[in-house]
TrEMBL record, chains A, B, C, D:
The gene is asd. Pathway: Amino-acid biosynthesis; L-threonine biosynthesis; L-threonine from L-aspartate: step 2/5; Amino-acid biosynthesis; L-lysine biosynthesis via DAP pathway; (S)-tetrahydrodipicolinate from L-aspartate: step 2/4; Amino-acid biosynthesis; L-methionine biosynthesis via de novo pathway; L-homoserine from L-aspartate: step 2/3. This is Aspartate-semialdehyde dehydrogenase. Its EC number is 1.2.1.11. One of its GO terms (biological process) is 'de novo' L-methionine biosynthetic process. Catalyzes the NADPH-dependent formation of L-aspartate-semialdehyde (L-ASA) by the reductive dephosphorylation of L-aspartyl-4-phosphate. It comes from Methanobacterium bryantii. Keywords: Amino-acid biosynthesis, Diaminopimelate biosynthesis, Lysine biosynthesis, Methionine biosynthesis, NADP, Oxidoreductase, Threonine biosynthesis. Homodimer. Phosphate binds at residues 108, 203. SUPFAM superfamilies: Glyceraldehyde-3-phosphate dehydrogenase-like, C-terminal domain, NAD(P)-binding Rossmann-fold domains.
Length: 347, 347, 347, 347
């Protein structure tokens, strides 16, 4: 078993890490960190448990420590659920000696930090060597993208491999859990929606092209198409829904696109990693799917569900679809864990 | 006072007609029709009143009659809130002698039936003459578009007049009231959304281009750009939200676009029609507006609110914005009433 | 394995039966019935699957048959998820040769039909002999109570055994799934609640006292205290919440009440029945629990969670608490299955 | 016109004060106070406007000042929407020279501070004389009760006058606006409810009996019956719903109770005060009313709507009903304003 720690273990994504790692066959939670206010307490006393599943017995009695490598010792991998500003300061400290699999946005776009979805761009992990050399670290940081980016990119990857994508428009309907437990007041969401999520559109636009970009041995050259996002918060607890419009350079047939998405397998599927979904993309044929409450948990929340796949009558070489992905599993904690599983297997 | 009737007066849109007409300075409700089950009853007994405002005293005692011109007599204008299939049969009967201002979709795309938003294409009313000649009617039918089309088109019209629109993508988040009181089960919408509304995308795509099209004296030639829609139902009672992406042929400045939208006035504003909003399009500068619960009632629900007006970083000559419009006022009953007010004034 | 059928298998409770029975160690689904419209179709084609978990592979290809003992043959037990009116006609036909474990309300208050919660009144199953004699059946009908009754009665039973209950007031906040998929329109529940559920208060008041009543060898004598219910529907998908006020004849200590509830075990726990929760009643100490989304799935949805257990400052000998129970698992399909498991074990 | 100030003018209740006072015939807003962070700014720049109605033009340019009598000068009445801790410090300072009509809970149960609902206990205003004498103030403080208390007590008052109330149980389903804009996270309320509101049950229990109590010339003697409350937060924006169970000493007829509630008029109705509803209590006969979205705005949000009035089958001399009242209008800002209108008229 590999000893792992969770940085920022009391928040919403921290709790997902705990839930997903509690029965993990290779990783054993041996350290939980949080802010000074929680340090020294039993985890059960420090955290208000937000998830619908019960708090795992195995973590209840772990003593929470400060988010500091001197406190969270004897771990090989740390998973980071820290807010961006804290992550920027603390993750580099851990990376001196540990593998940091981070869900935070702080280091994602650093040129020598791999931003990885295992099914999409595992080869970007080659950046680790550059990172270690640049920074003189024995460990390293690997990041996963933003929740809405991951779901989108998992569906774009097989298409990008087979077609010449010209432009993508995406409009999201995102779950409130994405903002943390206290992030969205109920006054803002009952009989309402909020058509703005700070920084989200910029992240989707830059991260997606970066993920699909090519690592040329020194840095990542973003994919050469245009992507425009409009991001909105709706009254859904978990599960981001995205309406996607794509224009290709050439003609396409819907059946081919469907097969392309259905048959998509990446390295995690080939390596049969513990958290890998059988199929990263699942197609639903019903006219009114995917729906977040019905489809977010597909394959333990690690698969993205695509439906309403149809040609775009208005434009040549174009298609439209709707996708749903679980934002705190596939889009956050599960993404970091799959990164760590891949690293454990191949590095 | 002009005597008016309401066809399908017990449903959700029928009730909005009643609410909006109860204190109208020129129109007086003298007939209310419904299905055979309700005919013969007092309106208050026939209808389950769904609106938040109380049922107007003036209609409580009106006896509901069958939806038949022989029963609903002595009216000059009838407002139709009928379902499409009934409308197709009944509206032509009324049009023999009456003006039919219809919210139903049945006749909208008939070549000789004007589909009109008074601020957008009042000149399409010239089709009436052709319609009456074709069909031998003394009255005529005028229709208004689908709820989501109206809100979108009100914002596209001033842009279309000033810029060369190349393509439009729109993704909607629509209120449950658009499906009627029983249309969307709560099981489908609590902690969920439904990414499909039957026929809605097709209506948005065809009606919008028709409304912006040119009447050449014989028929309407649709506007020559592409428009693609993806339509979704969310947990909002009233007020449709739409994320709009537009590519123009040429460069644009956001300030110019803003002025173009703000300063837009149409014939209803010039004629100072009773139900005309002061400005058909209202701009909000806050980063998180428009929101349906906050903005749907702007100018009595007759104005469309636009926010998040911004350039599209990914594409040249492109802009994005979010709009909110009240789907059963500006998008349904209020639209038919404004059509009737315009007709009363100019024909 | 015992062959079982599900009557009314396509509705919401029918689907819960399928979900809960799909991997059952003793019961094997061999027949699924529905209305004539569905008969002859594969189950997957006949049903619109409403649950968040995927439709079990094992039932997809079962051919749905009419709800008639001639069609649903070779079954030892049938679970009934029929509407009350159909149940009244069809269940007696099945009872001629089968055990009918029914969730329908039709036969619940028949004097010779046991209304049973296995933890509460298993001895009422002795009515079966009288029923078979009265009606000349080889099989029999056993029913479970209404969803909100079950949750309440599971908490009242241990108290009733230890204290002299004088009066109970209960105010419910019930999930929309209790009315079936199409039962509650979203217009009725978004930014709203409905303070009425047809027949619910009467069922709670009569069934609870019947369940706690004594079987005197011939019939059931209801428990001798008063119970008053007020029932309301709120915007929750699954999980009924109930605020309970109880006055006892004598003084009480909260710690004793807590122990009484915590330590409660019934026959299903002693027999270790497959669907029996470890503890029928689980106590939460947090000041803001139980909450339906967080607590409905406790012990696979078969335990009732109680919180806010406190004395009533206004009245002597009084206490108050709030409970949450899963309405379509413990309150419906799971209740019938536990009844059948008990019968299989002891009869 | 009387010059009035609003203390805590940027919060949710502060905004309701502004909305309700903007067109008031006797009160003119001349001062708005907020925390130091907002002081010095134009009101429009200082406040994030939360209400569905637009921010009144007349207040946009008022400069917000510190909540201090030296800053908010030349006002005769101040309305307090302050949090309890601030109110405890600041309201006495204002009361040296002003009338303070407070919605804060800080001073409500002070023996010499009148806690008043104008229809219920206007005679408690006689405490003012004692207060001024005790404290040496030229002004004074008058308070209104908690939101859920006001709605309940308005329905209890006419019953208390006509019957001997023995005991009352009340279970509430309260709107999220009652906790302020940021009070309830959406994670806590989507597909969920929270069965706890800090301090609410205690307030309902003590304030209601105090309001119905008798002022004996020196202090208020609470009404001599028992009242027990259980308070819950549900997914409703505005409008508290309460299920009420009452046991009387003697027999009752539902028709008499209905008449008693319907015909109830208080001093505000007799004096025809500007904000007084025509009837403080409105009865709905439909089996599924009152509902918060439909009934909260009855008589501009100042009337309480009662429905489901029925005998309690389980208990003698007992009745049950459900009520809805607007929590931030009748239950907060409107309550303080009605107090001030009464004081202006009679003192």
């Amino acid at each position: 078993m590999v000893n792992v720690g969770i940085l920022g273990a009391t928040g919403m994504v921290g709790q997902r890490f705990i839930e997903l790692l509690a029965d993990h066959p290779k990783f054993e939670i041996t350290a939980l960190t949080a802010s000074a206010r929680s340090a020294g307490k039993r985890y059960e006393d420090a955290a208000t448990w937000y998830l619908d599943s019960p708090i795992p017995e195995s973590v209840k009695d772990i003593t929470v420590v400060d988010t500091d490598p001197k406190e969270a010792k004897d771990v090989d991998i740390v998973f980071s659920a820290l807010p961006a500003d804290t992550a920027a300061i603390v993750e580099p400290k851990f990376a001196k000696s540990c593998i940091v699999a981070s869900n935070a946005s702080a280091m994602r776009m650093e040129p020598d930090v791999p931003l990885v979805i295992p099914e999409v761009n595992p080869e970007h992990l080659d950046l680790v060597e550059i990172q270690q050399k640049n920074r003189g670290w024995d460990g390293f940081i690997v990041t996963n993208p933003n929740c809405s980016t991951i779901a989108l990119t998992l569906t774009l990857k097989p298409l990008y491999d087979q077609y010449n994508i010209k432009r993508v428009y995406v409009s999201t309907m995102q779950a409130v859990s994405g903002a943390g437990y206290n992030g969205v007041p109920s006054m803002a969401i009952v009989d309402n929606l909020v058509p703005f999520i700070g920084g989200e559109e910029e992240k989707m636009e830059s991260e997606t092209l970066h993920l699909l970009g090519e690592f040329d041995g020194e840095s990542v050259v973003p994919a050469p198409f245009g992507l425009s996002a409009s991001c909105h918060r709706v009254a859904v607890v978990n599960g981001h829904t995205e309406a996607v419009f794509i224009e290709m350079e050439d003609d396409l047939e819907i059946e081919d696109v469907k097969n392309c998405l259905c048959n998509f397998k990446g390295l995690p599927q080939k390596l049969d990693l513990h958290s890998a979904p059988k199929n990263p993309v699942v197609i639903r044929e019903e006219e009114n799917r995917p729906q977040p409450r019905m489809d977010r948990n597909t394959d333990n929340g690690m698969a993205v569900t695509v439906g309403r796949l149809r040609k775009d009558a208005a434009f040549d070489n174009s298609l439209r679809y709707v996708l749903v992905g679980h934002n705190t599993i596939r889009g956050a904690a599960g993404a970091s864990i799959l990164n760590a599983e891949l690293i454990s297997e191949i590095m």
